[in-house]
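Hello everyone,

My group is preparing for a crystallization screen and wants a predicted model to guide construct design. The compound we'll soak is pyridoxal-5'-phosphate. Before spending weeks at the bench, it would help to have a computed complex in hand. I've included the protein sequence and the ligand's SMILES below. Output in structure-token form would be ideal because that's what our pipeline reads.
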Amino acid sequence: MSARSDFDPIYCGRLTVDLRALAANYRLLASLSASAVGAVVKADAYGLGARPIAHALEQAGCRTFFVAQLSEAIDLKPHLRKSSEVFVLNGVQPGAEGICLAAGVFPVLNSLEQAWRWRDHAREVGSPLPAALQVDSGMSRLGLAPEEVSQLAREAQFFEKVPLRFVMSHLACSEDAAHSSNPNQAERFDHAVAQLPAAPLSLANSGGLFLGNSYNYDLVRAGIGLYGGAPHPMAAVVRLDASVIQVRRIPSGQGVGYGLTFTADRPMDIATISVGYADGWPRALSNRGAAYHRGVRLPIVGRVSMDSFSVDISAISDRGWRLALGDQVELIGPHQSLEDVARDAGTISHDILTGLGRRFQRSFITGSEANPPGAQPAFVDAHR
Ligand SMILES: *Cc1c(COP(=O)(O)O)cnc(C)c1O
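Reply:
Good plan to model first. Here are the tokens for the complex, ready for your pipeline.
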């Protein structure tokens, strides 16, 4: 991402989403798997913007989308192609069946009660209502328990009223390839689906896809991999920059930030950066982690506040450089990956991405094979 449009100074920082990298990641995942790859765009596509993300993925060939909640499906569905399907992973709550049907989206049925209610709704409207079905293969989060699968399997009429678009389960430990629960869950999944009418099968998320083709079945549900989350060999999709709002020199012995949890052990140049925990820059990064400027590491000093945090910029001063009001520092980018930030904050990249707030200028880098070779990427600023 070398070409940059201007930083709008009304914003605290800028979140740049490279839709070309997103499309490249989609194509890479699709090429690595013999199965179809659907995109998980829940939580506003992990905070990046469900609509532009889904559009770019449609252009790359994706036709299956997953959200967590019905409200998300209702928001997204009208903006997708007619041929694209949206599935609601958390299922449909009692009384919302008609809304789900009217929205043209499919529930993932996670319990017998949900299954019966959806079947009853099919009876009421007088036509079969397709849905997906989730079985619990060991995570104990969502889906039918083994004995419930057997009970449902005995209800042959159910499947006339509710044709299964696919049967799915979810892996608890897919990021840990050596974990014994992976083969255990696959085995339980096989056992469950053997009792059910034939339908396409889906077990793997991004981590599952990398466990090998035996985990991929017919449909992979990829989330973080599309958005460039490590440990997978994906292209970086997100860049985050923030503005310097004050620079000062402090004497040795002076404290920094709430609680004065940092004390300078020498005269120090400090810059205040206009991003805080209200923007999803985790408070857990207090006195941990860094920002970067021209490739130079600037350690975070003191607590991260709601709207700002401080960095030690002595390494910049030592080089004879100056950091001034309005300059930008890199929070996520070529020198500090999303994964680096997540690790420093003691969490996972999903958590960092979905937390990034609404106060950033948001820019999408577009441009694909449709553009002539060598064309500059187009920037589309979305002020939202
Ligand atoms: C969130 C989610 C995914 C996507 O997981 P990633 O690790 O982001 O790839 C897939 N399936 C289900 C059921 C999920 O809840």
